[in-house]
Amino acid sequence: xxxxxxxxxxxxVAFNGVQVTDRVSFDISKGEIFALMGESGCGKxxxxxxxxxxxxxxxxxxxxxxxxxEGKELPKNMREIRGKRIGCVFQEPMQALNPVxxxxxxxxxxxxxxxxxxxxxxxMELLAKAEFKDPERILKSYPHEMSGGMLxxxxxxxxxxxxxxxxxxxxxxxxxxxxIQTAVMDLLKNLCKSENAAMLLITHNAHLxxxxxxxxxxxxxxRIAECGKTTDVLNTPKHPYTKALLNVVPTKGKTLxxxxxxxxxxxxxxxxxxxxxxxxxxxxxxxECATKSQCSYV
Amino acid sequence: MNAQPKANALMCEILNIxxxxxxxxxxxxxxxxxxxxxxxxxxxDVLALAGESGSGKSTIANALVGLVPWEQGxxxxxxxxxxxxxxxxxxxxxxxxxxxxxxxxxxxLNPRKTVFEIVATPxxxxxxxxxxxxxxxxxxxxxxxxxNKFPHAFSGGQRQRIGLARxxxxxxxxxxxxxITSALDxxxxxxxxxxxxxxxxxxxxxxxxxxxxxxxxxxxxxKILRLKNGExxxxxxx
Lengths: 298, 238
Prior knowledge:
A: 298 residues, alpha/beta, Rossmann fold, four-stranded antiparallel beta sheet, 10 helices, 10 strands, B: alpha/beta, 2 domains, six-stranded mixed beta sheet, 32% helix, globular
């Protein structure tokens, strides 16, 4: 238990009084890559952004639960932790960087906690690990002079520069071309491993989660449907939603008949109740599903 | 979907493109977006255009409906008729037989128009009755209750259905789908792929399907044209 870097316990977040996530719980161990997978609107980004307290104020509010980071409850002054012990990599690298400040200044800002003489050395070390051929030129460049893939590599360097123990990567490759997604994910994984940082990977992509995560939690309509070792969850899914989701993931050798669409659509948070939220789309629905929040198959 | 187009592979050729080249000129210089692209499409075919961003997939689609100018030297034949791609007016005949559905369901629909108005606009432009708009919305799985709603009231998948209804309301024979599932979740993507298959059978459509996802293309297409830097890199038959 001591190896846990992050414990999220019964976390519920509400937006303008409407609860969007319900008692979300998971743990992340030191150096582990944990994926939170689900479709748009299932609450994965809300859960992830609640950890570094980046939820929009005042509309969003944590209504229940606790977040234990490095053995302590998160402090009110998150500046001590955010960007220092917890690094963030966001979906859109262009929006994560300031367009009018050169890359070098922005990178150096991320290591402002370090002694002055170590800052540039640390940045150059990370740029070398990220395989930038001409790091000196990169430092003088502005964001608009670089491609999306290069910018995301810069953001990854920024997130890891202060030697955090946890990196939250919120759909880090969604805005990138398919051919550079692998390179960016490889870099993120290798840097996290070499720096001994754990990673919370937010993704809707089952291939990405399968390839890069050690453990996975599948979210549906604000709740965790199923959680476990990635190979177990993806190879032998138990929750009907996980099974249905994996059925619609296009893979080599599948035909259109193999892609079985999930009937209906996701409930709006306003319609959430105490029963299983997948029961309206579930092929294995039982009477008890209307009252039990936990699926009886899991 | 694979089996059906393969069975139709011997059917007649409806589109033939030879030496399609497109060049963009800007202050920064000249960009050869497409270089001598040639391909054909048979009735019932699903042709996938694959490649990374900037490889020229969407430029081919735009050139086919006359949204970008062709370089001299190309030839365009549609349903056995020669089209002059250097005259803008030639493309008005093309567009009644070939329509496009776009990638982003959030920016491709006019937010100030109701769903019915959006789908009926092509009919009004042709001076035709708008009755067909209701039928088309029904065909893509939207109900009568949705007719007077605005796009913001719909999810991404439903908006993509509205875009498909708009593209199909003039009963084109070729539908160009430009990354129409890229912005969607996998469960909605499966719904749209099944819908496309149903529409293809019901309306005798041929599809040009643009995507960067090889797994999706192998599922839906019987021919795949892979592009790299504006040139044909390989041709695959699934």
